Fold this sequence. Notes:
Number of helices: 12
Bound molecules: manganese (II) ion
Oligomer: single chain
Shape: globular
Amino acid sequence: MRTLIRNGTIVTDQDVFQGDILLLDSHIHEIAEHIDAPNAEIIDADGKYVLPGAVDIHTHMDLDVGIARVIDDFYTGTVAAACGGTTTIVDHMAFGPAGCSPWRQVKEYHRLADGNAAVDYGFHGVLQHVDDAVLDDMAEIAVQEGITSFKVYMTYDYRLDDLALMKVLERAKREGILIAAHCENHGIVTALRERFVAEGKTQAKWHPLSRPPEAEAEAVNRLLLLARVAGDAPVYVVHLSSRLGLEELRRAKAMGQGRLGAETCPQYLLLDAAMYADPREGLKAIMAPPLRGEEDRGALWAALSAGELDTVATDHCPFTFARQKQQGAGDFTKCPSGAPGVEERLILLYSEGVTKGRITLPQLVKYACANPARVAGLYPRKGAIAPGADADLVILDPEKKWTLTTGRMHGNSDYTCYEGMEIRGAVERVLLRGKTVAHNGAFTGRRGDGQYLRRGKSVLCS
Ligand code: MN
């Protein structure tokens, strides 16, 4: 099958230019100023941007957090992804039963995702305790499954202590595995939560105060110093939310540390901790780390503009407001943590980032498509418009104006944190390996058409 995408404004992470793209079956075959392809199906992209399919390397489909299970499974969550222009996800696994091998969750996640996902998908492994067998399993999983990144948590019940982190980092460096870390200081968060609950301070407004930027910055700093001692072990800070945390990254880089990357998310760029003031509405944005203030948002946008961060992912972790989030009514510590976002990310970054001059078009592609693919070891198969790459493409109408509202979203959650936001630009058509999977806000793909991605080494490991 030949498909010609004609007259589009092609956007890569390097460049913006007019041209045609010829697809041959599932791959990009040729890119040129003008291509004649008599028998090809024509998609007219005149006046539209053509971007690589977006890559979201932080989602939580079908996540079981013990007190609740997220409302999107691998089908509904990837339908939402597709409609938002995201053609690849790399999902962070839930913890398994205490003491289990990391293989247990790898198998569980194949069971959840295989035959269900509507876009291409990979997994990050998860480490919830550390011993020699777990480290051997990590190395084996990387080779056998192409799961070349593993997540560690510095807070929550399955947090790793410094000794465990050191062992993980030393082994990961040897094996060329990227360690992604949730960075919050557990002592700070626990002490503050206990104090607030004891004092009856259980409304949503206490949530951000229980997880201050200092908790993030301390953990980022510790992770990076441990990685430095482990011989510049490759690390990736997920969902960076604060200026203080960002300063720790800068310091590590200034000291010459090279194998480190960091991700932020649209919620930390666009939403304000003032959302927590309303005890009911505030539950929608209970997540960890929490929303911050204007100064933090400004610092994160400036870091994107300056190229100091690597990716923007979503941490898509949706619960229902009507039911699941209400577990936190009266006590924020009982609220399942997370919010939807996989469908909103690309258009928010375009509308709020590009059209408002905070980032450029190539930077949009860099943060939403190319760099996530590089960090995940998927580039240039994903995240690139180049001959030989998968024909994953987004055709974006730059001028269309619309209002972001729950009714237009495709995931299972009953709310969006961006309700009522005026959006400029719209995802018009999305192709996954040459096939249109979303068109004008409707899903046109199929359950199970997403392929499992065996990933190569992260660019952060080189
Ligand atoms: Mn997460």
